[in-house]
Amino acid sequence: MAIQHLNSAPSAPAASRPYPMAHPGYGKRTAPDQQPRRADDFMLLPLRERSIAGFIDHLPEGAAMDVKGLAKQLPLYGQQAVASALKALSVAGYLRRVRCLVGGEGGQVRWVFRTFWSRTARDNEWWAALVGAEREQTTTAAVPVPVAVRPVAPAVPQQRRQERTQEPASEQQAQDSAPPAPQGPSPAYAALAQLGRTDARLALSAADCTVLEPLAAEWLARGVDADYLKQALAAGLPPQVDSPVGFVRRRLTSKLPPQVPAAPEPPASGTPVRRAMMECTECGAPGRPGALTDGLCRTCRRSGREADPAPEVLPAERDVRTYVAGLRDLLKAP
Predict the structure, then answer these.
(1) pLDDT per residue as tens digits for the range 113-144
(2) In what helix (H) or strand (E) does residue 198 lie, and over which residues does it extend?
(3) CB–CB of 297/285 below 8 Å?
């Protein structure tokens, strides 16, 4: 009979299955300024919440934090139990749900949903400050600033240096005495000067254009072009214009276009835009941190209070005579 030799060496432990990770930008985010991990971190919580809190605390950064994914990794609890535990952990100050608007690549933005986790319980004011810091946070790539380097001139003997400094003096004086180059008329002045060619009834002199130039420049400063200005001044003219300069001045003042607010410029490529708002841990409704006390909206807080059963009144706390009289009535009933 063959003797079977058994290997007494212990078998290698089975490799743990990696936890599913969320998409880039989503999932778990560890809150800052936490205390070191200890064995009694969650001892004040009930058994279910303590078990789920310890599991979440050991999850890696960016791990999936949805209820369905957590329930798959926790065989002792279903989705409803996990959802109730997350709500309790939010009320206890261990987590908050936050949605962030992230963009900048190619001018596209998207909402990402994150669960900020802190093994140290925090109050509502601390979480509100964290969400405010996340809202204002911007990550911009550091762009090196070019520094202009001035070339160093070679050394020149003292005598030759004096000769060179004396020679261009006459040239510098000639440049200073030369008259400045004449500048062309401004766009506002040019538009007023062309009104006479658009309609002879609005022919203005050079002095008239100089007087009306500031009013026309205000039109151009509000975003209109020269063609729009000329059309607005020459539209619907009366049969006869006695004073072109007075007529144009009145129209420049009474038909001044409104100030159009500047459109917001799109973010530059490579500069992500971050906006953050807290959302209810139970139903996901977004809101300000001040409106989501304990990470819950008003509706979920109210439903949680209504779901709590009323404490049962024990017979010892009732009126003994009333209780006995009720029992006698029940015995007398046929």
Answers:
(1) 888 998 888 888 888 888 877 766 644 333 34
(2) helix 195-198
(3) yes
